[in-house]
Amino acid sequence: MTPSWISPDSLLIAWLLVPYLAAFLAVLLPSLSHALVVLCCGATAWVGAAALITGTTRPLQLLGEFGVPLSLEPLAGWFVLLNGLVCLAVWIEARRQGWDRTGWMLLLVLLGSLNTSFLTTDLISLYVALEVVGITAFLLILKGRSANATWIALRYLLIGNTTMAIYLIGAGLVYAQAGSFAFAALAQLPLGAPLVLVLVGLLTKAGVFLNGLWLPRTHAEAPAEVSALLSGVVVGGGALPLLRLEQLNPAIGELLLPIALASAVLGLIYALGVTDAKRLLAWSTLAQMGLVLLAPAAGGLMAFSHGVAKSGLFLTARQWPSRSLETWRQQPLAAPLLITLLMGSCSIAGLAPLLGYAAKKQLESAMPPAIAAALLVLSVGSVAVYCRLCRAPLAAASGSQAASAALPWGAWLLMLPLVGGGVLLLAEVKRGWLVSLVLLGLGLGLDQLLERRRQHVGHGLPSLDRLPDLVGGLGLVGAGLLLSIGAELG
Amino acid sequence: MAPIRLLELLILLAVLAGFAGLLLRRNLFLKVLSMDVMGSAVVALFVLLAARSGLRSPILPRSGELLAGDYADPIPQAVILTAIVIGLSIQALLLVVITQMARIDPSLNEASFEATDQP
Question: What is the model's pTM?
Fold first, then answer.
């Protein structure tokens, strides 16, 4: 007979709390830190996978009526699994970079607070979890130890905290009108100012459209492992609550649809225009987060396939000879590195049989035909974006060079679910190979066309990410949302 | 005008003033202060929300009997306590970073930190 404290609920609570405890232990007893990180990441991946495989929803209410409501359903399962895998991969790579005990502490706190933010279903617990995520990410960006890293980190925390103040005003108004902080209470209210304020906060955390203008420079300038964490999972802390709200009230999904599509277009245009490879990846994150928000039915898989591939790509960034895409053709890459780069790129570009293909198909089938057609046009763009990364030639394998280049095990761990999941889910999406091939051809053509233009014309893209632009973006999106709601009421 | 409406209006003004300061001020220190003005306005909003049902502190006497019905709502008060602590710690972190940045540009003009390369 099992003791009463080993119930699934208490195990779930223990799983949520252990990373914080482990973070303190990792500082006090550095010799234990590696074991603790592996244990926490493994447990997180296992909980996420279990939620996906069983497909059940497990609601949990802590401390009575006004306590903390938690919920672990398959949608959250995707994000939790992603969190475990990405943190594990980052651990593998960061060990090589000689992270110290504070680094492991921050990684564990980030893992724990992201888990909390993925499970919680009330506005205040989410606020606390997202603020902890923000502070931890800020400290991780500071690991860059340059003047530029300091500036980027300051900008990140300043915008993050401002936007969370706006979010709190929204939460307060929700409580005034509905008498509860639960997501469900917000979704039942008629669309109005409280919802808009909460959405502005979450859109900024998710890095979508004008609210996400902070994202490209931040993700590009952070150290490679930190970029992988930020682009892979941290943006999910804002995206999952948005998906949950869309699930509870489809009208919120309709409200967010133009913003999500605009984000995808904006991200693609800049990803096609920039000349820095890390910044290309970061702008593409902004585009992909827009696609994630399109449909709650496909959002989980979309976020998972993007997060895994993008983290893998960022983890290889330390071994690139340079970040400049203009000299990318002349820089040979070693075979293991090139394979990782190709695989991640092909998955995000949506080529079969990788996981990104299954995610795109699922998204297309969840959307009405007109939007699905627009998505096809957008995927031509993303093929053209990732063509630019795949142009690097293969290095001639001379023995000494191959031995000196360390194998990217962390990135390979992330490529595993891309191939495995892609092949598993391929059975569900049989048709569309031909369309996929046509898209590939069109994407390659677009890439050639743009490449010729890039050689003749200078880059005319305006700079959108000075600090006043970021603050102004918040105001613009908030005002736009309010106007669109007002127009519907009138 | 009812006093509670007037207070709501003042809080709204404080939020807008903070936002405008964040947008228009060039000095990083003033930007952080503007952010704090917004944060304080949010705290005031929650305290005001709690006071809608009454002003008496929501603490039961030792005997356990209710003295009157006009207790303040304890939930917004409890919630905002957490937000105050988080706001303070973020403020501290930002100020530490700003003191480091003052070594590069003592006038703390944001323009001297913005990168000028392409997007």
Answer: 0.94
